[in-house]
Amino acid sequence: MQHPDQDIRNRLLIARLPAMPQILIKLIELLQADDAGMPELAALIAKDAGMTSKILAVANSSAYQRHNRSVGLEQALVSLGTDMIKTLVISESVFQTFNNFPHSGSTDLRAFWKGSLTTAVIARDIARVLDYPQVEEAYLAGLLHNVGRLALLATAPKEYAYNFTARDDEELCAVEQRTLEITHAEAGAWLIERWHLDSFLADSVLYHHEPVARLEAAHPLIRIVRLAHQLCYHAAAPEAAAGAAALCGIEEEQLDAFVKSAARQVMRAAEHLGIDLAGADDIPAPPAMAQLAAAAPVDPVQARLQEEVRNMVLVQEMGQSFARQSGEAGMLDAMTRSARILFDLETTVILLESPTGHALQGAGSGEAQQRLSEFALPLNKPGLLADAANGRQLAFATRAGAAGGLGIAEEQLFRIVGSEALLCLPLVAGQRCLGMIVGGVPAWQLPLLQKKARFLQAFGNQAAAALETALSERGHARRQVAHVAEEYREASRRVVHEVNNPLSIIKNYLSVLDAKLARREPVVSEMSILNEEIDRVGQLINGLADLQPSEVGGVTTNVARVVEDVLRLFRATDFLPASVQVITRMQDGPQEIDGDADLLKQILVNLVKNAIEAQPQGGRIELANRGLVNRERRLYVELVVADAGPGLSQDVLANLFSAVKSSKEGKHHGLGLSIVHSLVKKMNGMISCRSGANGTSFELLLPARGSTSQLATVQARGVVDSV
Fold first, then answer.
1. pTM
2. Which of 232, 631, 670, 684 is the most exposed place for a label (fewest CB within 10 A)?
3. Residue 295: pLDDT band with limits 50, 70, 90
4. Co-location of 193 and 236 in the same domain
């Protein structure tokens, strides 16, 4: 048999009770700001037609209208004043929301709303006396302190219809606890907690029937609502009223003034709000009673079907709730809260699969956060939790029933959750156990949970699906970060490698410059080269930020001129030994290419430098323009850099244009040809290498001038011809 309180909580979830209106939340925030202006208030209130009409109706009533003409919304707000605006906005929002509760239309709510309004007014007056900073919050708390009675009426009309009109006292709470195992204070607090307000509003609702002795150190809002409730419903009990007044530091002599003032304000507010309270005091409020309903025959098949349908709805609702959470931490908190509410768990903790998949680790949150964050359960050793995770099966255990059979991990969890029994619910996605929800429950509750095995597993599957999505997103984010980091590392290595070339040239030119200055020879040419190389260093460093460089277009470069500049750099310094002969064969034919001169210069510096280093005992380097080449219906200028060195081994040749470990000294060596390859690609060109016993040659195919536009024309003609 399902416990009544669990059934009521399930029905509260399914009933989709109304959320707090967004306009009320925004208006409360705005009204709490001391500098809130009337234009801002008018703009916000104008978004709600019902609220606007209510404001205009009150402002044009005989109590406020001093002229015969009607007023606009902003003028209406000015004439009403801030206090009346706050009262109307908060009250009307609450009435609009909760008058739409199921069964509210068939129930006489006059006494309910009069009690709520009276408590709200008294709470506001007490808050002002105590200098409580959020006076509107106190008014709203008083207005909502009994909303749990409406919630219970909406979700359990048969069980609660009689007691909805019963006297609001501790006996009512006792009867609710016996019949439903949930009080209207608990139901109201649960409802308000769904609004996620950063406030003690839900606490003030939860504790408004709490014994005075327990509230001495409570938050001021809780004590304010407790006293307001006492004065509204039990003003004839002076001792109880005096005790509640002492909580707030208020003299007994002041209490009567609160009650009389509230009576006047409530009637005036009801008139403005259009609420008929006439005869509200004549509605009987009998003592609460636990009614014995006549037992009706129950069809077990129908009852089971209803429970299955309800469970399906709940599971779908939970799945949507998990999907709406932002971030993994928020989703795990939502899982633990939902599991506690749905299955009446005392404590709930979550264990997640470790990165290696060999253990379950505690997800530290809530109580015992430190211990949970350090808790690990190996999955390769037998035990209750490990067996449940490996077998992907629901498991239960009690301290007494597993005496002597518990492992250290299980004993630790029993101490962490502090319960007599454990529920172990694996979170299974496909064939993988992503983690486990471990709940602490009283031992007597295990048979009830065992009957809900299918419901529990469905809940676990929804939670696992949401968790799998979150873990996938987290893994994707980590891979993206790692990819970007690797790109920056690679770009940094390339920049360091390339910067070394102009820096070495600058260093050698400085020595040449020093010698010329000593001989008082002109240094204009050297200074020009130094400026060019310094600029190139700057460009290389700035390029570090461009992980995805844009294509270079619209620039034309003369190949022969760039070759001449590169050789001039090498000849004027010690980079080119006298033992190395350089031969250039630049044709009279096409010399211009589509591409950036600095990129070509960077390519040739690397290739010439490698050619020099390949012939330490001296040799020959040839730079040749072999004219035009047609490749895939596109024209290229073929530029060759060849040396007479010993050639490259087959292994080196196979990995030539990749970043490899080099035999040269320095941690950035081995990158040169990979950089050359990427630069050639950036110029929309091609590079190949021939190597043998007679030397090595690098053949560059660089787009001939105008070849890009010619290719586009050919492609366009091909499209037309095909049509």
1. 0.44
2. 631
3. very low
4. yes
